Amino acid sequence: MSSHKVIVIGESSVGKNEILWKIKADKTNGPVDYTPKTYDVDGTPVCLHIYDTVVDERTFKISPSYFQGVRAAVVMYDITDKKTFDNLTCWFKSIKQSAPQDMILMIAGTKSHMMGQRQVFKDKAENFAEENGAISAEVSATKKGDTDRIFRELAVNLLHTL
């Protein structure tokens, strides 16, 4: 089995908890600060140990301890709130100060079911991801299987970059 620590980063308003709650197997235990999830990738079990980060949203500071043993980070923004997308630059700056250089990065636009209120267009997010060596995805906690899809994509990337 392949096992990887993944951290989820983003402002509290972007819907991180809703996304993580959808993939949490045991919905009886309180907050979603840690969720293990295993995916089958080409016959190999890939276990993601997913941690929600507690960060200072005013300074975008992430404790270096979060990066110990981390293999991937998912930085979330809200597609209906351009400010959260603009703040990706600050999140990435903070990540690059403390994270391992070989870490896989993904940006994930949340609330993709709210297309009529979209403020961040997909091509802009894809360009940002490409410029920063990241994977780009969009996700909605309301669409069945959507949350699993982005973490499965991360599992595939982790397995194939070992």
UniProtKB/TrEMBL annotation:
It comes from the Eukaryota. Pfam families: Ras (PF00071). Keywords: Nucleotide-binding. GO terms for molecular function: GTP binding; GTPase activity. Belongs to the small GTPase superfamily. Rab family. PANTHER family: PTHR47978. This is Uncharacterized protein. It comes from Artemia franciscana.
